[in-house]
Specification:
This protein has about 140 residues and is mainly beta. About 0% of the residues lie in helices and about 30% in strands. It starts with a strand and ends in a 6-residue tail after the last strand. About 10% of the residues have low confidence.
Length: about 140
């Protein structure tokens, strides 16, 4: 039994003073040779699907147990001192579409945006947290 399954036809957009969307490949349309979305690191059971809200692709995230992680990170080299594809904006918001198909614990479906330091490492600052309401599953 899957603990959670969530299809994320994400259309990510950072709303800030920048004129262009700083989230590259936020629609997951550009894939690498292995079929994974460019500029994204997959954590856990994640796969590209054509079950998209708009565009051609979305991400399917499935967490099959309480242990482990399931999600997406921006590509960067830990300890490398480079920003990689992480965002440099300090203010803004992220908008996305999701469809939560199943959850054994509806309170456990949460999306986070994690602040990083200039090193870059997780800064320990407040994570932006978006819990999926149980009635949306």
């Amino acid at each position: 039994m899957r603990a959670a399954a969530c299809i994320l036809p994400l259309t990510l957009g950072l709303f800030c003073l920048a004129a262009d969307n700083p989230i590259t490949n936020g629609d997951f349309e550009t894939l690498d040779a292995a079929g994974n979305p460019v500029d994204w690191e997959l954590l856990g059971d994640c796969s590209v699907t054509d079950d998209a809200h708009s565009g051609e692709r979305a991400m399917l995230l499935q967490r099959t147990s309480a242990e482990g992680l399931c999600g997406l990170n921006r590509v960067w080299e830990p300890g490398g001192g480079e920003q990689g594809t992480m965002l440099s904006e300090l203010k803004g918001g992220v908008r996305f579409w999701y469809r939560a198909e199943e959850a054994s614990d509806p309170d456990g479906l949460v999306f986070y945006v994690i602040p990083m330091s200039g090193e870059p490492l997780e800064s320990g600052g407040m994570r932006a947290r978006f819990p999926i309401p149980p009635q949306h599953i």
